[in-house]
Amino acid sequence: MNLLYPGKYEAEMHESPSRDEYRENLFGKYRSELASSEAAQKHTASPFVYLSEGDKKTFIGGCDATVDWARSLMSEATIQEKAIMKSDGYVKDHGYEYDVVIIGGGSGGLACSKECARLGAKVAVLDFVKPSPAGSTWGLGGTCVNVGCIPKKLMHTASILGETVKEDAGAFGWKDAVIGAHDWESMVSSVQDHIKSLNFKYRVALREAGITYLNRYATFKDAHTLECVDKKGTISTLTAARFIIAVGGRPSRLDIPGSEYVIDSDDLFSLEKSPGRVLCIGAGYIALECGGFLAGLGYPTTCMVRSVPLRTFDRECATKIETHMKNHGINFQIGVTPKKIEKSTSGTLLVTDSSGATNEYDTVLLAVGRIADTKNLNLVAVPGALDSVDPKSAKLICEYEQLPTAPHLYGIGDVVHGRPELTPVAIEAGLRLARRLFGGESQPMDYENVATTVFTPLEYGTIGLSEEEAKEKLGENNIEIYISEFIPLEQTLSESRNERGDGAFAKLICDKTQNSKIIGFHYLGPNAGEVTQGFAVAIRKGATYTDFASTVGIHPTVAEEFTTISVTKASGISAAKGGC
Questions:
Q1: Largest CB tally within 10 Å, which of 109, 178, 335, 551?
Q2: Host H or E run for residue 163
Q3: Residue 252: phi, psi to the nearest 5?
Q4: Do the beta carbons of residue 4 and residue 74 sit within 8 Å?
Q5: What is the DSSP letter of 483?
Q6: Portion of the chain with pLDDT greater than 70, in percent
Q7: What is the pTM of this model?
């Protein structure tokens, strides 16, 4: 402990040359130092270990007890980092209208606002959606609820349902199970009805929490004043001691001739008519998720990829996803970018790419990234605020969600530079920030080992480092990689799946220098989100390969593969698995 934490612990050793002299010291001065400890008075072995903190002395025990004590101190569950916040000048009698105003009514902003109110703060939430270039708009709840996670997962589910009927039902005895043409309009109507019900529930929740909700577009007028404009153009102002910016981001745009003809993820989920033949421009998870479910619903789909699909993810897993999507009829154009888009007299779109080729589509979906929606906040009106904005991404550069150069301003969610753009991350960061600001707590947000799932046709769940990141961080010789390729039981009866080679894949990346602690978890297969979420707890607690291997699995499931996985990548042995 002295070596690991030299600023916190100092080891003082008292050695005795013989057993008799040790016992003389034990029954004398050692025990007398801890006269009030019954355990110390009964201790007879060597060593005799206690902790001194000023005048306070705490008996730890002998060898085993000392090792257990050290382990508990070093376990991830007990090492608690504290958020060191800069003073933001907040006082109880500040004289402003609100203690805090949250700008942005997405998942993070809503969670943060309700927690602030629960802790006694006077809170207002401002949320206003500027229409997309194609004219799409939506209600309270932010990207995830309206044009992100929720409609995406529902449409992905529609695709999976169709695939199950087409690929599997017959083999399970459903001889008359046939899949007809997909009704896009009916699906969109059902999805939008569900979203509107959520919008209503969020407004009710704010009202019940005593939070002022204002459907107005906010810009800073000065350090503590917002200018607010409603949909009729009426201007008002409000003041607050603190501001939490949770405006998220909007899709990036193309700067090419004809870019006005494209739609993006802000438009797709409320598209009134069937998309027909679709070109998805982009290689990230949004592009591939959308391209995946559109193809699964029966719409001919092409993915235009500038470099490689899912560039920031594990390359082995990304390649398997690409192969799966190609095997399921999705066309990939690799290494090209769009150069111009023209609209024909019949209404179709002619897309010319960087290779000079021109192809015809009914819908062009752009998904080449997102940019933080901070440009129009007029942060220049807040002294120092622009110094905490990344010029390229327009994201906020925060320390513990606080702008260091304008400490009464805070950021959570996708708007924060260098943090995962995930709804649960925004929610948790918002809750912890609220508790630090108004609850007297100091616990920071933990951005390590955040689990996520990519809902491509072959779903992908991941936690921690990719293989490439692990090698770069630790060195190839310091990691062990376990892999397994297998067919989920529910897919084994399908002839078409077997012919294509559909299957699942499991991968664990372990740090050999830390008792084979798992630093990377990767799973491709059915129900990836459900599988990955459960393992996220174990990995967050520092689980090792031995912990996984000694866990009794649930049979027959895909998740149990992680309790039996044993083939290392370095061995060169085939990872393909047969039978149970």
A1: 109
A2: helix 149-167
A3: -70, 155
A4: yes
A5: E
A6: 97
A7: 0.86
